[in-house]
Amino acid sequence: METKRQRQVAELVKRNFSIVLQEIGVYIYGSQPLVTVTEVKMSSDLGLAKIYLSIWNTDNKQAVLLQLEEEAPRLRTALANRLKRHVRRIPNIGIYEDETIDEMYRVETLFNRLHEEDQMGTAEEE
Fold first, then answer.
1. Which CATH number is 4-99 given?
2. Whether pTM exceeds 0.70
3. In terms of DSSP bridges, do strands 34-42 and 48-56 run parallel, antiparallel, or are they unpaired?
4. Which of 3, 38, 70, 121 is 20 to 30 A off residue 55, Cα-Cα?
């Protein structure tokens, strides 16, 4: 279970990392991909921030993630400049892809296909 402080620092990291991506993201992965911070989870000692990103408008999401991981020290430094007045210790960052939205679209497509094939049943059958 997350503590109140973990949630506070996670929100602080989320907001500031989003700004960092707006400022220097275009130099890392270009202007085509749209990268959004969806969630940040902090470790119990606040030493690690797991940053989950949603990546759109590109066919190769893995390439964008690899570029971000290569530039992690640069991103952490930019994040540190924004957080230094708010936290004692700047957390290390781990970058992960958030596949929640992709999974949602996959399930929605599956339901639509079942509905078109008349395999969903009707509301009266319940």
1. 3.30.300.20
2. yes
3. antiparallel
4. 3
